[in-house]
Structures are given as structure tokens and as C-alpha cells.
Amino acid sequence: MTERPRIPVVVFPGSNDDRDAAQALEGLGADAPLVWHTDDALPPGTTAVVLPGGFSYGDYLRCGAIARFSPIMREVAAFAAEGGLVLGICNGFQILTEAGLLPGALRANASLSFVCRDVPLVVGSVDTPFTMRCESGQSLTIPVKHGDGCWFADSELLAELEHDGQIMLRYGAGTNPNGSIGDVAGVTNANRNVFGLMPHPEHAVDPLLGSTDGALLLGSLVDAARLSVGSLV
Amino acid sequence: MRATVLVRPKPGILDPQGQAVESSLRHLGFEVADARVGRLVDVELTTDDRDEAQAQLERMCEQLLTNPLIESYEIAFGAGA
Q1: Residue A11: closest CA among A82, A84, A85, A95
Q2: pLDDT digits (tens, 9 = 90+) for A119-151
Q3: Total domains present in chain B
Q4: Domain span at A140
């Protein structure tokens, strides 16, 4: 069993939280190499993949719309299809929705303003690889920083996701920073091995930065990746 | 062959840009009931076959130019610059 599960962080042109994510994961016990978007394979022994925040391809056309066609995304999609763990943070979340790996779409904030502040979040299901260190209904404080974080799903899709327990994170009542439907801050796919969220857990892993609640989410992923080492290959 | 793809937020989708434009137009004294903001993409295709161009443009819209969950599109030929 590998002591440090390998969780590569993909770097797209315009990613800017890749090093923060890698550093946070390393601090939580993972081996987090950076992987360039033109690579056509994930590193050997990959147990989970993180798509970091940033502004891939300058957010041209729609956020994440162009990055989803990067060569590495074919590998990420294949990895996810086999049950591999994939986490998308902010721009990574946008890329995963554009790629059809997560439900819904992300649009300009209702305020049309960029928001950058700590937000309270409420954890939904804890029976997932991304939230198993949390308690159900637990409140977390994690920063957001985005201009296009307004998650949208039509009422039919939202009802389906709520019924299936795929809404993993919501903004605390009255604190929604972007106008997302149902105060949604993060969702999983039906198999719960792909998760995307607008808040930045990698910026909340050190008391110096005000909160360590992000470590609950990233730490869950490291735990889950460590557990999955035995089941892969 | 030249074509223009018009991309619009679907009806019922909140359009904060459109709302801001509508509000500004009202401030300027225009009597405006609604404004929506979309996007246009001028495309020059190498084919001269209209049906082939139409088919290619539809695939472009489905794969890249629009997000079908939130946007609709319209293809016009000979329009644009």
C-alpha cells in the first residue's frame, strides 16, 4: 500500500491555483505532481485527479468550454468512467460541467461582480469520497473567488439531483454569493466519484489564512485515494 | 461560404447582462420592456455546399459554440461582416 497516494493536479494555460492545490494535497499526505494539459496520459499510479481553479484559455467563449478539449481531458474522462476520483475546483468545476462529467452549467454571477470572500457552506451527504471527514449538515468556512459561479440546472434536473443526494455543498442561508439555483455550491455525478465546487478548499488548509475547513474536503479525498490504491490495478 | 451563428440565453434563464443593459437603456430615456444579451460568431467555411455547411455549423454549435443546457442558437447565411 502506497503511503502517499498519487493525486496529480492538471495545469491548463491560465490555471492559477494549481500550485496551491498541489501544496495543500502534499501537506495532507498526497503526492501531487503537476500534469500539463497536453499530456496524453495520467502518471502511473494515479489514484485521483484534481482540476484546479484559474481562467483556462482566458475564459474565452464560456468558462471551461475550450479546456475540456485538452488532450489530458480524454484521459480524465476515461479515468472517471472507470470510477476514478476526480475533483474540480472553481474553473475545474466549470471544465467538468462543460465536459458533461458533472450536471448543470456555470454562468456569470447574478451581480455581474467578481466575488472574493469567505462563505459559509453546509455539507450535504457525507457518504462520499470528498466529504467523508465531514459531518452531515456541518458548516464549513471556505473562500470563493469567481465571476462565473452561478450554477444553473432546470427545475427538473435540480429535483433529480436533490432526490439522488448529489447536491454535496450549499451556501449558508442568505449568503449565496453568485445567485446559483438552490444555493448550490458543489455537486457530484450520479456515481459520486466526480465532484465539483466553486469554493476553494486549497485556500483553507492553514490557520494563518483564517480557516482549515478546506482540509476536511481535501483530506477526505486523500483518505479515499489511499483506500482506492488497493482496489486499482 | 460565410455564416453567422447567433447564440442566445434560453428563455427563462436569468440574464444579468441583459438586465443591466435594459436598465441602462431606461436611464437613457428609451422605453424598453426587455433586453437580452447573447453572442455572435462569424464563421467562414471552406465548403460552398449549403447543406454541408449547415450540418457542420450544427455540429459546431452542439460541440463547442453553445452550451445546450442554457443557450439556443440560430444559423444565418450570408449575414455578418
Answers
A1: A95
A2: 999 999 898 999 999 999 999 999 999 999 999
A3: 1
A4: 9-229
Tell me the pTM: 0.93
Query: Does a structural domain hold residue A135?
Result: yes
Separation in Å, CA B9 to CA A102, A104, B13: 20, 14, 6
- What pLDDT band is residue A233 in, cutting at 50, 70 and 90? very low
Structural domain contains residue A137: yes
Using CB atoms and an 8 Å cut-off, which of residues 50-69 of chain B contact chain A? Answer: 64-65, 67, 69
> How many Cα atoms within 13 Å fall on the side-chain side of residue A139?
7
Buried b / exposed e across B35-44, counting CB within 10 Å, b at 16+?
Answer: beebeebebe
Query: Distance (Å) from the C-alpha of residue A65 to the closest C-alpha of chain B?
Result: 7
- Mean pLDDT of all residues in chain A? 95
**Domains: count for chain A:** 1
From start to end of A69-198, where are the E strands?
85-89, 105-107, 115-123, 139-146, 150-152, 167-171, 184-188, 194-197
Does residue A143 sit within a domain?
Answer: yes
d(CA A1, CA A3): 6
What CA–CA distance (Å, rounded) separates A185 from A180?
8
Q: Cα–Cα distance between A201 and A24 in angstroms, integer?
A: 9
Which of A65, A66, A105 comes nearest B69 by C-beta?
A105
Amino acid at A178: N
Find which of B13, B23, B37, B64 to mutate to test the A interface (most A CBs within 10 Å of its CB). B64
Whether A2 is covered by a domain: the verdict is no
Regarding an ipTM greater than 0.90, the answer is: no
